[in-house]
Amino acid sequence: MPKTALNLESVGSKIGVVVAGLVVVSFLLYSASSFFGDSIAAVADTAELAGVAIGLSPGNAKSHAKLAGILNDSFKDADKKIALQNAEQAVRLSPSDYNLWMSLANLRESNGDMEGAEKAARAANSLAPAYADAQWALGNILLRREKNDEAFKFLKTAVAADKKYAGPAARIAWDIFEGDRGKVSKAIGDSNDVKMALSVYLASMKKFDEAMDTWRSVPAESRAADKERNQKIYAALIASKKYLGALEVGRLITVSGESLPEASKINNPSFESEISGKPNEVFDWAIDAGSSPSIGISLEEKHSGTTSLALAFGSNPGKAFRSVRQVIAVEPGTAHKLRFFAKANLKTSATLAWQIADAVSNEVLATTESIEVQGDWKEYGAEFRVPADSEGVVIRMVRAPCTEGACPITGTAWFDSFELTKTGGREPEQD
Known about the structure:
Blueprint: H1 8-43, H2 47-56, H3 61-72, H4 77-93, H5 98-110, H6 114-127, H7 132-144, H8 148-161, H9 166-176, H10 181-188, H11 192-204, H12 208-216, H13 220-225, H14 227-239, H15 243-250, E1 286-287, E2 294-298, E3 308-313, E4 324-329, E5 335-347, E6 352-358, E7 364-367, E8 374-385, E9 392-399, E10 410-424
Antiparallel strand pairs: 1-4, 2-3, 3-10, 4-9, 5-8, 5-10, 6-7, 6-9
Helix pairs in contact: 1-2, 1-3, 2-3, 3-4, 3-5, 4-5, 5-6, 6-7, 7-8, 9-10, 9-11, 11-12, 11-14, 14-15
C-alpha cells in the first residue's frame, strides 16, 4: 500500500487561518458588544438599562458613570453605595477624563466624604486646568471645607473664564464677606460682568442703593450691552416701585431711550405718539381693560399739536367706567404742579376729574376741579407734594361717586397738553 506524505505546511496554514478567523470573530463580537453597550449607556434612563450596558461592555467607563448618575438620585443608602462604586470604577477605566473625576467628586461629597471629594476635584482640575467647570467645582468644595482663601482663587479664575459664573460667585462672595464690596471685588474680581451680576443680586435682595451704585460703576457702553441683566434689575426696581432707578435702567432696554421721559415729566403729553394702552404699562399712558368709554386719539379736536385724547361715552347704565393713567418718576418730598386742557360735550350728572396719587401707597395727593360737561378748551390743574418715601406718582382720570342712581354718561370729552412742573425741592426734615 503506497504511503501518503502529510503536508505539514498546508495544515499549519489552515490552522493559522482558523485561529486568525477566531481572533477576528472575537474582535468583532467584542467590538459589537462594546458598541451596543456604549449605545445603550448613552440613552439609558433607568438603572436596569445601565446595568445591561455594563453587562455588554464591563470595561466601558461611560456605562459605569451612567449607572452611578442614575443611582445617585435614589433615596436608598444601598443605591448610593453602588453609585459610588461605579463612579470609582469609571475613573479607574478612564483616568484621564476630567468629567468622570468631577462626577466622582460630586458623589463622594453627597456621601459625606469631603476629603475624597476634594481629591477628586483636584484631579479633575489638574486634567483640565483651563476649564471653568472644573475650577468652579473645586472652588465650591474648598468653600464647604472652609478653605476660603484657596477657594476664591479657583472661583475667581472660573468667573474670568466663563461669565455664567459671575452671578453665583457674586452671591457667594457677598454673603461670605457680609456686603463688603471691597472684599467681594478682591475675592472674585472687578470685571464688568461681576459688577453687573452683583447689581442683579443686590436688586433681588432689595438693596437698591448698593445695586445702583454698583451698576453705575460699570462703563456706560458695557452697561448698555448687557440687556439681560438690565432687564432683571429693571424688573426688580419696578416691582418695588423704585421708579427713579427704573427710569435710568429702563433707557438701556427700550427700543429707543427717547421713549422714556425725564423724571417729573409726562410721557407723550399731547398724544402725538401712539399709546400702548396696556393696563400695566409703566412710564406711558395706560388704559384700563373694558369697553366703556371708548378711548382713542382724535385728529379733529386738539388744543395744541395735531391730536388729543378722546373719551367717547355711549349709552350705558353708568357703572362701567375705565380710566386712563400714567406713572411718573419723581424725587421724594418734592412739590409739583399738574396742568392740562380739557373740552367736553357730555350729558350727565356725573363729574370727571383727574387725581394725583402716590404710586407706592395709592394715597390721593390732589384732585383737579371737575371737568365742565359742556364747553370749549379750558385749563385745569392741581398742586401737590410727593411723600418723602416715594419715587412715583400716578395721574389718573376718575369719576366722582354718583349720588343719583346710575348716572349714565353720553357724549365725548377731550384732553390735551398735559404738563408736570417741579415747583419746589424737598422740605427740610423736622428736628
